[in-house]
Amino acid sequence: MHATGLYSSSLSRSVLGFRRDQVRVMDAGASKQHEMLLLDFQRCVADLCVDLSDAAAPGAHDFLSLSWVRRLLDAFLMCHAEFRALLQESRTLVVRSPLDRLVADFSDRAVKALDICNAARDGIDQIRRWRTHLEIVVAALGPAAGTSRHGISEGQLRRARKALADLADLMLDDQDAGAALTRRHRSFGRSGSSFSLQKSGRHLSSLRSLSWSVSRPWSASRLLQAIGSNVAAPRSHEVVATAGFAVPVYTMSAVLLLTMRALVAAIPCQDRGLQVHFSVPRTFAWGAPMTSLHERIMEESRKVRKGRAGLLKEIQQIERCTHRLTEQIESIRLPMSAEEEKGLRQRVEELVQVCDALKEGLDPLERQVREVFLRIVRSRTAGLDCLSRAAQ
What we know:
mainly alpha; transmembrane helix; 69% helix; membrane; transmembrane; ROH1-like
């Protein structure tokens, strides 16, 4: 009996030891998988930032163009999807302190970004109205307009001149155009509205400020400051306490802030001031390219004149082309010489190219802005549901 008891005791200790070793192996495997997920997310963000930064290098043709902004929003959506998948893999950690607080802070920042998405949607709609006036100019002076043997007539020049003047009014800076407005509604800009103001002899009933659906005190600059408030790299004890998840939360906050800053810079928005603190450590793989992107945006904002509606490349093309065409039309005396008509056709062809770029790029950009909005809303809803189930 005694020998049998010793054998049973040894066997029990051996089995328990094997189970402990097995648990350690499983824990080590889970820890390794967890670490790989965190590293994969950092690499994903870094690769996307490098790609965007390369396309924003000095001399890059597409920086802050419609196509570049679409790439930026695509990158944000990819990062957000990876971030949500990462949190989904570790649901038990997300509902625990202190990670629950960090995730909630990020969620609050993302909700603030919804207003910027709305403002960007309004800005895109405004650019569409600009395109309508450009199309009037093209219809008046384009190839189809000069088919008569007498060439371009005074009536055609007058029509183009009026469309260019209306466009100049529409592109006035919001602070100049809508100083007397107390609230903006999309309905104010609809046909048949009796609302109008007088400024420099022009009626302002159709100016850009009337198309906005946000209140007059709303400020893109202040909202960016709110999104960037308290965004700081996690300290070592926060990283340890959250099993490393404080890092991707901070990373996603930086991605959100940069995306919203670029969107506000490019698209017409109310109070577009960009002097918001932005600093990320270069120790992160994505730190250097993200800082480079921010510096390039600030560099472009310093180049342009105060009051410009947006840094979007196509907006700059509109301003440049319409300015040249207006000057040329004002200098024309009918009948035009063959050289004058050729120069006018070249200016109109520049407008045709801008119109084509807007026609091809605005709708896809608006869909992406809408997708960013919906993705944030769904993420917020899922987060609240998760916390609600954890509290039960």
